[in-house]
């Protein structure tokens, strides 16, 4: 896991968000930004402007729109005309929801791209969002080799709709990995950047997954399942708006805890796991032998008798973050809701 910078504890001053990017030195990675949009005009311009303000400028920005009827497409087209060097392309989305829109985007990444960064339509990136990821991925490739899939993700400033009242998203103390990814996601899609080996892996697997719960959780599962490495950055990478139209928000506070408990008791979490297991099984040849066996042990043991379920929990070693996460996982196993 990467560590936080000394400046991670304080929000950036507003003027820092509008700085123009420095010219990229020769040999810097070519980054493609993938953004799925749908009727996001009211908050989109700030996100687009933050792309232009990156210290490491994107080489391409692919925007897949799911049939917006507001000004979303016009804003993207105007931004592309104003910033021709950023390679903005507006694509027609599959109109099957955000997850499928991102999977469609991943299958359309040009081969000349080195890194792929995912973006939501309503956030604001900090100016070092891409440069931090690129530096971390470069260091990981120097250690592991360029053929090793590596995913960079991290924390964010959770904000209200006006980007004020900021608080840091949760830190993650236990290491990321497939045993964790099977039952919990820590990799927020809006903070994800993938090296070439990772985005090519995910793009190929995306053609095999008919349905996923959410794209970022599935990406975390595929990358770790294939033996890839996840770098969790403790420094915030963006301003994460919380508003009534979030597909998935920060999921914190008493109300969120009640929703999670109801979702688990009603069998919703079990349904999610069924979808995830099916999607991973479709790409089983891409998983390491150890992780294929782990997936099969989870599939076979999660709905058996109580002794069998408890044995599965011990044998697989799946885990969630934090005390609440550990207790909720145990409860799902005890109640047969895993």
TrEMBL record:
Residues 33-178 form the Glycosyltransferase 2-like domain. It comes from Pseudoroseicyclus aestuarii. Gene3D superfamilies: Spore Coat Polysaccharide Biosynthesis Protein SpsA, Chain A (3.90.550.10). One of its GO terms (molecular function) is transferase activity. InterPro entries: Glyco_trans_2-like, Glycosyltransf_2, Nucleotide-diphossugar_trans. The keyword Transferase applies. Keywords: Transferase. This is Glycosyl transferase family 2. Residues 1-28 are annotated as: Disordered. Coiled coil: none annotated.
């Amino acid at each position: 896991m990467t560590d936080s910078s000394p400046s991670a504890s304080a929000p950036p001053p507003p003027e820092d968000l509008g700085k123009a990017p420095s010219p990229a030195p020769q040999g810097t990675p070519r980054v493609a930004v993938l953004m799925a949009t749908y009727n996001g005009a009211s908050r989109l311009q700030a996100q687009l402007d933050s792309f232009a303000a990156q210290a490491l400028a994107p080489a391409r920005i692919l925007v897949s729109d799911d049939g917006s009827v507001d000004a979303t497409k016009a804003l993207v087209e105007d931004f592309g005309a104003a910033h021709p060097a950023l390679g903005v392309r507006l694509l027609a989305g599959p109109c099957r929801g955000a997850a499928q829109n991102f999977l469609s985007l991943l299958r359309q990444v040009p081969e000349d791209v080195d890194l792929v960064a995912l973006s939501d339509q309503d956030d604001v990136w900090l100016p070092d969002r891409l440069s931090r990821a690129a530096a971390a991925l470069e260091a990981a490739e120097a250690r592991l080799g360029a053929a090793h899939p590596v995913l960079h993700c991290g924390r964010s400033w959770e904000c209200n709709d006006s980007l004020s009242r900021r608080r840091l998203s949760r830190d993650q103390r236990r290491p990321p990995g497939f045993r964790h990814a099977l039952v919990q996601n820590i990799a927020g899609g809006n903070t994800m950047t993938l090296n070439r080996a990772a985005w090519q892996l995910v793009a190929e697997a995306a053609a095999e997954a008919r349905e996923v719960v959410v794209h970022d959780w599935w990406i975390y599962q595929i990358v770790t399942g294939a033996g890839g490495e996840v770098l969790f950055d403790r420094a915030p990478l963006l301003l994460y708006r919380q508003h009534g139209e979030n597909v998935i928000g920060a999921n914190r506070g008493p109300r969120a805890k009640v929703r999670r408990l109801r979702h688990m008791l009603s069998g919703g979490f079990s349904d999610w796991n069924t979808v995830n297991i099916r999607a991973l099984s479709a790409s089983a040849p891409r998983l390491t032998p150890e992780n294929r066996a782990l997936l099969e042990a989870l599939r076979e043991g999660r709905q058996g008798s109580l002794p069998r379920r408890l044995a599965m929990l011990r044998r697989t070693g799946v885990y969630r973050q934090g005390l609440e996460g550990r207790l909720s996982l145990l409860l799902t196993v005890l109640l047969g809701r895993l």
